[in-house]
Amino acid sequence: MKILAPRLIGMRLELVIIAFFVLAVLSSLVVYVADPSIYASSLSLKSSLADLYPVPVMLFLVGMIALIALLILGVVRHWRWAFWLTLGAFGSSVLHIPVTLLQIAGILPNADPLWYSLLQIGVAMVEIGIAIWMIHVYLREGVWAMGRKKNKRPTCAQASEAALRKTLWR
């Protein structure tokens, strides 16, 4: 088995997350063009045929794209909060699968079309896979595979060794 350098593992993780975010933006735009009523119903807006693309939905999409752009910048710049926010969001998508399955089964109310619900399940599964990978990378190599933070306080052995050196060199 080929062992990869920690930095290479981190770069691969970053590329996968950035690619996921770019695909999320593109798929959101495709869904908006295909059926803007999905977003209108999610935002509890009354959609009419005269107002096919409501302004609040456009503002929501612009805000979402701005947030994703900020997260991409956080991935590139290795911001710790971006790592934890992404991990939390992707990990919590494990709850989305049973909810969507209950909506498809008709147990919970669902205003979305079947194709959109199936798309949400697929996206949640990808997010869970990335979250598991992020946990694995964190446990082995630290946040963004940048290494673990070194403890600034010396251990007892280091402190006693330093005190001994100080005493011997006086």
Q: What is the topology?
A:
Elements: H1 6-34, H2 37-42, H3 55-76, H4 80-92, H5 96-104, H6 114-141, H7 156-168
Helix pairs in contact: 1-3, 1-6, 4-6, 5-6
Give the % helix: over 70%
Number of domains: 1
Radius of gyration: 23 Å
General form: elongated
Major pleated sheet = none
Total beta-strand segments: 0
Query: Treating each run of at least 4 consecutive H or I residues as one helix, how many helices?
Result: 7
Oligomer, anyone? single chain
Class per helix and strand makeup: mainly alpha
Distance between the ends = 53 Å
Quote the beta fraction.
under 5%
Spell out the helices and strands N to C. Answer: HHHHHHH
Q: Show unreliable segments.
A: none
Average the pLDDT over all residues and give the rounded result. Answer: 84
Q: What does the model show?
A:
- With 170 residues, the protein is an all-alpha fold.
- The protein has seven helices and no strands.
- The protein has one domain (6-168).
- It starts with 5 loop residues before the first helix and ends with a helix.
- The longest helix has 29 residues, at 6-34.
- The chain is 71% helix and 0% strand.
Descriptors:
170 residues; mainly alpha
Quick synopsis:
The protein has seven helices and no strands. The protein has 170 residues and is mainly alpha-helical. Helix 1 packs antiparallel against helix 3, helix 1 packs antiparallel against helix 6 and helix 5 runs antiparallel to helix 6.
